[in-house]
Amino acid sequence: MRTVRAPATSANLGSGYDTFGVALSRPADVVSVERADRTTIEVTGAGAQFIPEDPEKNTVGAVARALDAPAHIKIDKGVRPASGLGSSAASAAGAALALNDLYDRGLSREELVPIAAEGEAVVSGAAHADNVAPALLGGFTIATADGVRSVETNVPLVACLPEEPISTRDAREVVPTHVTIEELVATVGNAATLSVGMCRSDPELVGAGMADEVVTPHRAALITGYDDAADAARAAGAYGVTVSGSGPGVLAVCPPERRREVAAAMVEAFADNGEDARAYPAWTGDGAEFV
Fold it and tell me: How many Å apart are CA 215 and CA 14, to the nearest integer?
């Protein structure tokens, strides 16, 4: 048996649509695998009742097929599905790392990224690497058609998750297909600022670089209470706030000593809008690891 803890992740980070990703120190999935003649899946934990155990419909089934590694796979979900915190990516990354070791396939973490991304395609319809890359590599990652680049970083974060689910497919449908040159220039500048901030572990620069007027407003409109939660987070000391992935999760960057205040402010703002929410004061974290 091999058991792996795979972290929640946040993709896009505002200005880095389908490109940027970051691993969170919490929450996480725990994935255990055992050799078997055919792949079977057992799911427990947060939102388990909504996750199919059919290998043809589950992210880890696609990973097992790609690695030619049939196994009994048990997933203990700490990352709720339809959260915007990389739930399917955590499971796919955990399974990829565990099965690669169990069957001695000898692939590096970088080589496992496209394999784990195939698992993502089961959920979102496309093999995006912006969540599975940080889930495997940790820290801050940039996923492009040419591959993945990663950097270790230490930035304080707060992830806040309202109960209202939003599917990745629905969130992709509201993304605009055209931008103006002014929007392009602003987005490039913000993405560059965020990247420098991550390389320096500077939360103030990261927060400034999260600003985005292209994708984020459209996805934020799907989240009940988002504007109030974002305003409350900034009033409590956050440097920047954005939609986490496709939502409904919300990600804030703040000084380390303000994480609990920011978390409480967002939870209260969602409550004022009739939405139950849970917040995770966290840091940028490591990639999947054996336990």
Answer: 8
Residue 251 has phi, psi (to 5 degrees) of -115, 130
Helices marked H in 236-278 — which ranges?
259-272
Which of 78, 98, 73, 97 lies closest to 28, judged by CA?
78
DSSP state of 210: T
Q: What is the sign, positive or negative, of the torsion defined by CA atoms of 146, 91, 27, 247?
A: positive
Which residues have a catalytic role annotated? Answer: 120, 168
Global pTM?
Answer: 0.94
Mean pLDDT in the chain?
A: 95
Q: Which amino acid is at 98?
A: A
124 has a pLDDT exceeding 70: no
In this predicted structure, the answer to whether residue 91 has a pLDDT above a threshold of 90 is: yes
Q: Please give the share of the chain, as a percent, with pLDDT higher than 90.
A: 89
| All residues at 6 or more sequence positions from 14 whose CB lies less than 8 Å from its CB, including other chains | 190, 194, 209, 210, 211, 212, 216, 240, 242, 243
Q: What is the pLDDT of residues 17-72, one digit of tens each?
A: 999 999 999 999 999 999 999 999 999 999 999 999 999 999 999 999 999 999 99
What is the spatial distance between Cα 172 and Cα 105, in angstroms, rounded to a whole number?
Answer: 34
158's CB contacts (< 8 A; 6+ apart) are 233, 238, 251, 252, 254, 259, 262, 263, 266, 279, 280, 281, 282
